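stuck on this fold:
=====
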Amino acid sequence: MAERKQGTVKWFNSSKGYGFIQQEDGEDLFVHFKSIIGDGYKTLEEGQKVEFTVGEGQKGPQAQDVQPV
């Protein structure tokens, strides 16, 4: 199982369905709404603390299995 990391939502555009998470090491990581765990409308709020794994997306590393903490 992949290592779970923590970070903070830098910004998330609900209408476009993507945004960025700032990892604890300062690096930004792309996040797509399909990677958010949960039922119903999947969105994140700026400044929200989240937990995630890092996987490989079409354009490089991206957050996967994202859950609010």
